[in-house]
Amino acid sequence: MAMATRTLFRNSLLFKFILFFFLLSMVLGHETVEVEHYPLVVSTWPFVEAVRAAWKAADGGSTAVDSVVEGCSACEELRCDGTVGPGGSPDENGETTIDALVMDGVTMEVGAVGAMRYVKDGIKAARLVMQHTEHTLLVGEKASAFAISMGLPGPTNLSSSESIEKWATWKANNCQPNFWKNVLPENSCGPYRPTSYLEHTNEKCLKTFGMQTTDLSFHDLGLRIHDTISMAVIDRMGRIAVGTSTNGATFKIPGRVGDGPIVGSSAYANQEVGACCATGDGDIMMRFLPCYQVVESMRLGMEPKLAAKDAIARIARKFPDFMGAVVAVNKKGEHVGACHGWTFQYSVRSPAMKDVEIFTVLP
């Protein structure tokens, strides 16, 4: 009896010992997965400093949302490519405005601002919309007033000497090219009226200037008119968030809002699936919500590569001349890009990398 008791006791200790190391291996294994795959930062274009800023925040334990804001804020401060932050992309009146978005893939909350004037901190304004309102998108001067009331600096002149010089050159070229269609200007730079106006007017001597945008395009001039930073972050806990910031299309019609603050177009995130970042011709891309399409396709089982290519192909079938790109990221941290009309690059930082790496995607 005593021997049976001792045997049972030894077996009990052995079971506890095995159970302890089994549980320990599970914990260590989970930590290994975190260290190997997370955090992860992915961004459109070679915006290396922005990715470094987001990585530093995420690697230091910040949430995915806060890390995205850090990364996009760095790009705004650096005025990445002249297409992010203040001082770039003047509209027809020579003014720079800001579009931005942030999305929490865990809660599915979104904050965004569009055509925001006088406030340079687009992504921070977007986060304030998400944190302190029940709304998703605020626009124009009212977005500016909200951002300033919540403590962001302003009002500030968002133009720069470079943007004003670019605008003056464009004006001297009879405001060509531009984004108008099916109109005739009273003067070389407007005001514009629908071509059908002439059928109903008694103004026999209305002076008109033929439009040249079909002959002289932004692409012909080599102008980069819509380069958004769109960034996805997976933090140490595996939480996913996305953010965007842009000063929009160069020489846009005042009041235009691009796809930057449109959830599902420029970016999208779902904690259960992954995320998507997009850049390109926003006026066309927002009609297809390519990032929502990418994430939804991955949710239905499609691999990131196929999901990205499929989203781009859907647009190209209707608009074969469009220029754009997406980056698909699944919840395991696998990433891939797809593009149309240009050669696209995106930036990545993961624990397996010593620094930010640039990936090139051919159309």
TrEMBL record:
It comes from the Eukaryota. The keyword Signal applies. Keywords: Autocatalytic cleavage, Signal. Gene3D superfamilies: (Glycosyl)asparaginase (3.60.20.30). Residues 1-29 form the signal peptide. Its EC number is 3.4.19.5. The keyword Signal applies. It catalyses: Cleavage of a beta-linked Asp residue from the N-terminus of a polypeptide. It is an enzyme of class 3 (hydrolase). It holds the Pfam family Asparaginase_2. Coiled coil: none annotated. Heterotetramer of two alpha and two beta chains arranged as a dimer of alpha/beta heterodimers. This is beta-aspartyl-peptidase.
